[in-house]
Amino acid sequence: MRPILSRRGIGGLKRWLGAAALAGTALASGCSPTIEANAPSAGTPAVQPAAADTIGTGKVRVALLLPASAPGNAGLVAASLRHAVELALKETPGADLTVIVEDDRGTSEGGRAAAAAAVDAGAELIIGPLFAASVRGASEVARPAGVPMLVFSTDASVAARGVYLFGFLPEGDAERIARFAATRGKRSFAALLPDNGYGSVFGSALQRAVAASGGTIAAVERYGADAASLGQKAASVAALATAGGASAIAVPAGDDAPLRVGAALAAAPGGPSRVQLLGSGQWNDPRLLAAPALQGGWFPAPDGAGFASFSARYAAAFGTVPARPAALAFDATRLAAGLAARYGERRFAFETLTNPNGFTGVDGAFRLLPDGLNQRSLAVYEVAAGSARIIDPAPRSFPPRAGF
Fold this sequence. Notes:
The protein has 13 helices and 18 strands. It has 404 residues and is α/β, with parallel strands linked by helices. A six-stranded mixed β-sheet has the order 2-4-3-5-6-7. It has a four-stranded parallel β-sheet with strand order 9-8-10-11, sandwiched between helices. Strand 17 and strand 18 form a beta hairpin. The N and C termini lie close together (7 Å). The relative contact order is 0.16. Pfam families: Peripla_BP_6 (PF13458). InterPro entries: BCAA_transport, Leu-bd, Peripla_BP_I.
């Protein structure tokens, strides 16, 4: 049996992590030049090595891997992640951290090189990368070195012992909404899923959660990228449900699929009153919330109060709103500071990071699982009047985990 950390210790850590939130962008400072590895030849002026790019001056060294030079808007997101780390240290008096910033370039090779530089610099924990490819490369270096990672990717294929996914996972959405629907008397489910990795992961988790609640899956339809496929599958799953085959339809994607199913249900006699639409966190989008066909639908998401507070503090500090993943960087930094303050040499040990009591951050309670996945405390919202209201609050703690 693994050691269990005390609730008293976790309570103190929750106070360190606080309750804040996130969103945004801002330009990061440029990466430092590479330090010259070889001594200069005789007669050549000595080149002063560039100072490492760091945040903070504490004794415990932690690395932050960012896609600073990756194409597209990745650099802007990287800047927002960095600012979130700066804010976390500013708001954590006495944080004994030095954060070493490395550019992973958004690639596997870049992740590998950034992790190697971090390990060579003495990092005991790695925060990031953002992209799955970079996580794969970085983990090839970090895991053999015994350096755990708190990564921002939601791709379960990169999760492993020591490589912990820190974001919001489709598995968590599926489990939360299925279990809540069961408490409201929904026992027979249908699903319309995108024919991709996200759809597969959500569908598998939905089946497990429905079975655990004593329900059944009546039908699963998958749609491709073409509009004709989506329209046909949406009509099919709506017809099955309105004919009495299912009391709830899960449509998790944030594309037009929920709108198509909602419209088909609205056109069927008694459809909206007999069949409950279920979504995911991707429904938390103004376009979907305003759709008449989705009014009354349910979806899981974190309580927004913490994010609103974080976002306001971030905007006050940097003059812009944060990118959504910035909340994860903020929480990871606060977590590292809290663990370093309380657990000495065991600060980033396996049993410390996977404490079954979990931690509290910007978006509520979360805990890291031994296999690298996570559980997050989610509220359930109902779409109403073009907005969303909480109909089941996010739990403040987690039930005991099997084996503890």
